[in-house]
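ARCHIVE RECORD
Type: protein–small molecule complex
Small molecule: SN-glycerol-3-phosphate
Source of inputs: curated submission
Record status: active
Notes field left blank by submitter.
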Amino acid sequence: MKFFIDTANLDQIKEAKDLGILDGVTTNPSLMAKEGITGTNNILKHYKSICDLVDGPVSAEVISTDFKGMIDEGRRLADLAENIVVKVPMIKDGVKALSWFHANEISTNCTLIFSAGQAILAAKAGATFLSPFIGRIDDMSWDGIDLIKQIVEIYGIQGWDTQILAASIRTPLHIVQAAQAGADVVTCPLSAILGLLKHPLTDLGLQQFLDDHAKANANHIIKK
Ligand code: G3P
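STRUCTURE (tokenized, with ligand):
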């Protein structure tokens, strides 16, 4: 399973990259706004900075909701760097745009996926990645991970190669469950990635090793 970070924050992207586990980045208009990146030129410049930082796929979302607008925007985004993936919402013109990008060999990420039916349409349209929003489904008291399982099963039966990218990940447990469900990719906030590290027995065990070493070392020096 590939690890993407879901942020437009360059420091957080660098921190995840330094761990040596980062395979790519996803962004969305809300995440760009959160970083205070506004205006078309600044937004394009920021995507370019992210692409320069990471070798893997970087999802950049279109703002247009009509076919022509999505194609124009997507082409401009794709021209920025080889690793740009054009993020397209699951709406009627979005499906048309996914087919166009597929025919023109531009990678895509179909976003705002909340049902297996939408996942089927996106795969048929040739999306490279598919983003089911796990956390937002859980927020509605449905089970986001169940949707991942269902899509994994359908794509397996049909032999479709659209990669299932579990998005709207909120917790380390979501990452574990997405891996178990067979997601191809998870995109997570840095906090969820770092949360995977945590276990109190690791901290206690390490402290004991260090204390034992310090004690043994101190005795050794005294005996000398
Ligand atoms: O990748 C989509 C993601 O950014 C949405 O996450 O936490 O806003 O539901 P969230």
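CURATOR ANNOTATION: The mean pLDDT is 97.
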